């Protein structure tokens, strides 16, 4: 079932104002009860790193590639960002191995022991299509929420938009950078700059926009220490898309794997 409109607005208004993040986060008891009842907000629960990894692996096992790609497609014309996110979570999570960590920060997945507020994670999911796709807590929350959403059916318009996104990336030129791509995608589908950046990041997790000389999540989980950061970006593009330039093109094999029916429109 799609997320209730009022429950969505309560969550967004808790964290965000027209000028950005709110410093004072407050939600009335009535609004919080409504948001919890409709699945947009949660009671803060302590989830350890190891519990979060188990939850992520279980959520991936209950999800299919088809479910996340249909949701991704259906997000394009509708601007339903929460549907866009799950492809990123699934792509990162599907090769994650069961593991445990006792340290403050896990050397394998890179996640901190201290739990992130699930309400902030869900806010980021709905506002931008997710921010922390490496985070096992986020992967679990995102994929469980997609399962609660039920079946999602993309349209021909969605498929046309995705084809135009790939054509734009292919045509950006050898020297094209991520910022050029983000601007070039403007106007292809309803979006703002932050949303287009997130979409580009998800196409990186999916192995479509990558530097083929570097490890990527389609071939196997990339441990935190192997996610080498670019020396030139100070603007938070995630690994692995941060290494992409126009000369990398798009991975046709990744497109064929995720979207086998994109060309014939079925
Ligand atoms: Zn870990």
Word description of this protein:
This protein is mainly alpha-helical and 266 residues long. Helix content is 48%, strand content 2%. The chain has three domains: 1-41, no CATH class; 44-149, no CATH class; 156-258, no CATH class. It contains twelve helices and two strands. The radius of gyration is 18 Å and the shape is globular. Zinc ion is lined by residues 49, 53, 99, 101, 106, 108-109, 111.
**Cα end-to-end separation:** 23 Å
Write down the secondary-structure element order: HEEHHHHHHHHHHH
Bound molecules: zinc ion
The parts where pLDDT drops under 50 for at least 5 residues are none
Write a brief caption for the model.
The protein is mainly α. It contains twelve helices and two strands, in the order H-E-E-H-H-H-H-H-H-H-H-H-H-H.
Descriptive keywords:
single chain, 266 residues, mainly alpha, 3 domains, two-stranded antiparallel sheet, 2% strand, binds zinc ion
SSE blueprint and pairings:
Layout: H1 5-15, E1 16-17, E2 20-21, H2 29-37, H3 49-61, H4 65-78, H5 81-84, H6 86-93, H7 118-128, H8 136-149, H9 156-170, H10 178-185, H11 193-205, H12 252-258
Antiparallel strand pairs: 1-2
Helix pairs in contact: 1-2, 1-7, 3-8, 4-9, 6-8, 6-11, 7-8, 10-11
The structure holds zinc ion (ZN).
Zinc ion binds at residues 49, 53, 99, 101, 106, 108-109, 111.
């Amino acid at each position: 079932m799609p997320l209730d409109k009022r429950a969505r607005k309560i969550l967004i208004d808790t964290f965000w104002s027209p000028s950005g993040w709110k410093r004072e986060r407050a939600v009335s008891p009535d609004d919080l009860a409504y948001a919890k009842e409709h699945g947009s907000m949660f009671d803060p629960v302590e989830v350890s790193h190891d519990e979060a990894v188990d939850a992520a692996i279980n959520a991936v096992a209950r999800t299919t590639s088809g479910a996340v790609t249909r949701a991704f497609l259906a997000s394009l014309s509708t601007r339903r960002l929460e549907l866009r996110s799950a492809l990123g979570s699934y792509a990162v999570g599907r090769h994650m191995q069961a593991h445990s960590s006792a340290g403050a920060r896990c050397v394998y997945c890179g996640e901190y022991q201290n739990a992130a507020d699930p309400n902030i994670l869900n806010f980021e999911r709905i506002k931008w299509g997710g921010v922390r796709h490496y985070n096992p807590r986020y992967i679990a929350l995102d994929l469980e929420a997609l399962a609660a959403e039920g079946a999602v059916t993309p349209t021909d318009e969605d498929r046309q938009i995705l084809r135009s996104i790939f054509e734009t990336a292919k045509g950006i030129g050898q020297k094209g950078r991520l910022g050029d791509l983000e601007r070039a995608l403007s106007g292809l589908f309803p979006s703002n700059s932050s949303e287009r950046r997130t979409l580009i990041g998800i196409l990186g997790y999916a192995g479509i926009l990558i530097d083929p000389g570097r490890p990527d999540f389609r071939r196997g989980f990339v441990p935190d220490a192997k996610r080498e950061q670019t020396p030139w970006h100070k603007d938070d593009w995630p690994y692995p898309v941060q290494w992409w330039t126009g000369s990398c093109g798009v991975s046709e094999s990744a497109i064929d794997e995720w979207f086998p029916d994109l060309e014939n429109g079925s």
